[in-house]
Amino acid sequence: MLIIINIGSNQQKNNMMGRAHIFVRGLVQGVYFRHYTEGTALRLGLTGWVRNLRDGRVEVLCEGPIERLEEMIEWCRSGPPAARVEEAQVSWEEYTGEFDTFTVGY
Q1: Which of 36, 84, 88, 100 sits at a 20 to 30 Å CA gap from 62?
Q2: Looking at 52, 57, 68, 77, which residue is catalytic?
Q3: Does pLDDT of 50 surpass 60?
Q4: Which of 15, 14, 45, 20 is nearest to 96 (CA)?
Q5: Known catalytic residue at 14
Q6: C-alpha to C-alpha distance for 5 and 10, rounded to whole angstroms
């Protein structure tokens, strides 16, 4: 008899903490991208920050359960209704636990 055990279960994945650094390019400034990002992060229980960059991109740094970070990344690929996202570059980093909440940078 062959028994297969799924070690990478959703529960285990949800308990694993991570950090995602996301750079979003396209029509992402002047469309409330930061405001919607903050709301999405808080709804997902993530911590970190979001800010506009001088080159027109938006930068997001967030921490939390890997499963929730993946949801945030998917959200960033489309953004709020008025945004036109061309690209979302993601790099995974070590979880640090340095943030207490999610904030908007100005």
Answers
A1: 84
A2: 52
A3: yes
A4: 20
A5: no
A6: 13
Could you give the count of Cα atoms lying within 13 Å of 30 in the half-sphere of its Cβ? 5
**Alpha carbons 18 and 67: distance in angstroms, whole number:** 9
SS3 call for 61? strand
| 44 C-beta neighbours (distance < 10 Å), count | 18
- Please say if 52 is a catalytic residue: yes
In this predicted structure, the answer to whether residue 7 has a pLDDT above a threshold of 60 is no
User: Is residue 17 classed exposed, middle or buried when 0-12, 13-18 and 19+ CB atoms within 10 A define those classes?
Assistant: middle
CA separation, residue 31 to residues 9, 22, 37, 44, 86 (Å): 37, 18, 11, 21, 14
